[in-house]
Design goal:
The chain is α+β, with helices and mostly antiparallel strands. The protein has 19 helices and 19 strands. The structure holds beta-L-fructofuranose (LFR). The site of beta-L-fructofuranose has 12 residues, from helix 10. Keywords: ATP-binding, Disulfide bond, Kinase, Nucleotide-binding, Rhamnose metabolism, Transferase.
Length: 463
């Protein structure tokens, strides 16, 4: 994405797009990280002259480097099942309440901590001298400089969200070597210059800085939420996941919050992303893959015509994390809760979107209760902002207006943080004002009856 920022200008141009397809070898699901890096180089070449580069990606995953700075194997995908049982094993060494009090992180089976525990005793971890989270690894290849960007570090379950520094006690209790992580850096910090070999590959010239951004895509997406000044808002960052929550000034580390599995990830400027992961459009993407990638448009139109809330599944259930057989797994979940099994592809799609809306509602409500903050409007950003049915259903389920857009919030947030570091824009209010005045947004007003949603929630024990 090439971003352009001026006093009254904020545009994105998609200059290059490449697929991100995981590869299974030897029973392990990997990222094709060199293929992704090649896509980054191709994108930079297609961009032409740039003033700055910022890298963001999904969270928690990492590459290991040996003593020569060489990559030790392809990074393992967080959807690989190597971490099954690790959270339980961690609990025998450190009480879950102590882990939460120290890190504020939701338990997801793939948190970096559990991945590192699963890797203990492997040759690769034994040979590793450095660990780089995915965007930091890309930045390292671009610049030769290693750092650990803070917003993404906050997803490792090794960081104290109150201080923004590593939690030594947690690392010691779980046997994790913190010296593998290079020093922390913050969004806006300089992260080096493009190496001569990168300039040669991409045709770029001169000193081109890489600037640390909210390198966790969700941190960048929250920067890209077009909230108006003084607005009480919740956000839903939709894509493969739906990340549903609030922007707070301080973490919520209570036992209630832990039991509700809410996370306190860090945002820019000392903010906390208080949220919970909902399975997201992954459910839909995996069905499409299973069906041989039919066009989504006609299926969505058919789904919109069907009666709503016939069957719903718990879109917060970690049982849906692994890839494969998604239509069957959804059918099984409906059967297990005594609901009709969706009888067509459109019906399966409708079940997914109703279920996501229901999970969005539950999570926004939980976030308000646990933080003591009330919400007047919900912003949907990311790819799901283009899905009118999902936006309308979310508004209906919550009984609140939904403002949808921008779909490319993460790329916009990434661009804005770089622009600020280079003196083109001021504080967060200004960034959001620029988003409000330049981006196309659609408002969905709630319609229908909330009781139908209450009844559907009760059917899956998610009232
Ligand atoms: C979204 C995201 C989520 C994180 C998940 C795994 O792309 O970054 O925030 O929980 O991917 O890294």
């Amino acid at each position: 994405m090439a971003g352009r920022v001026g006093t009254a200008e904020l545009t994105l141009d998609e200059v290059h797009r490449f697929p991100n397809r995981p590869v299974r070898t030897g029973g392990t699901l990997h990222w094709d990280i060199l293929g992704l890096y090649r896509g980054v180089l191709d994108g930079l070449r297609a961009c032409g002259p740039v003033a700055s580069v910022g890298v963001d990606s999904w969270a928690v995953d990492y590459g290991l480097l040996d003593a020569d700075g060489r990559l030790l194997g392809n990074p393992v995908h967080y959807r690989d099942d190597r971490t099954s049982g690790m959270a339980e094993q961690a609990a025998t060494k450190l009480a879950p309440s102590a882990l939460y009090a120290a890190t504020g992180l939701q338990t997801l089976p793939f948190n970096t901590v559990y991945q590192l525990m699963a890797a203990q005793g492997t040759a690769a971890l034994g040979a590793a001298r450095r660990l780089l989270l995915i965007p930091d690894l890309i930045a390292y290849w671009l610049t030769g400089e290693a750092g650990t960007e803070l917003t993404n570090a906050s997803t490792t379950q090794l960081l104290d969200p109150r201080t923004g520094t590593w939690s030594r006690d947690v690392a010691d209790a779980l046997g994790i070597d913190l010296s593998l992580f290079p020093p922390l850096r913050r969004p806006g910090d300089p992260a080096g210059l493009l190496l001569p070999e990168v300039l040669a590959e991409t045709g770029l010239e001169g000193d081109i800085p890489v600037t640390a951004v909210g390198s966790h895509d969700t941190a960048s997406a929250v920067v890209g939420v077009p909230a108006r000044e003084g607005e009480s808002f919740a956000y839903i960052c939709t894509g493969t996941w739906s990340l549903v929550g609030l922007e707070l000034d301080a973490p919520v580390l209570t036992e209630d919050s832990r039991r509700a599995n809410f996370t306190n990830e860090l945002g820019i400027d000392g903010t906390v992303r208080y949220l919970r992961n909902v399975m997201g459009l992954w459910l839909l993407q995996e069905c499409l893959r299973d069906w041989g990638e039919p066009g989504l448009g006609p299926l969505l139109r058919a789904a919109a015509q069907l009666p709503g809330l016939r069957s719903v599944v718990d879109a917060g259930d970690a049982a849906f994390i692994a890839p494969g057989r998604m239509p069957d797994r959804i059918a099984e979940a409906c059967r297990a809760t005594g609901q009709p099994v969706p009888e067509s592809r459109a019906a399966t799609l409708r079940c997914i979107l109703d279920s996501l809306a229901l999970a969005h509602r539950r999570t926004v409500r939980d976030a308000q209760r646990l933080s003591g903050r009330s919400v007047d409007v919900v912003h949907i950003v990311g790819g799901g902002a283009r899905n009118a049915l999902l936006c309308q259903l979310t508004a209906d389920a919550l009984g609140l207006p939904v403002v949808a857009g921008p779909a490319e919030a993460a790329a916009l947030g990434n661009t804005l943080v770089q622009a600020r570091a280079h003196g083109l824009i001021g504080d967060r209010e200004q960034m959001r004002h620029l988003l409000c005045t330049t981006q196309e947004l659609t408002t969905y007003e709630p319609s229908g009856d909330l009781t139908a949603w209450d009844l559907a929630a009760a059917r899956i024990g998610a009232a």
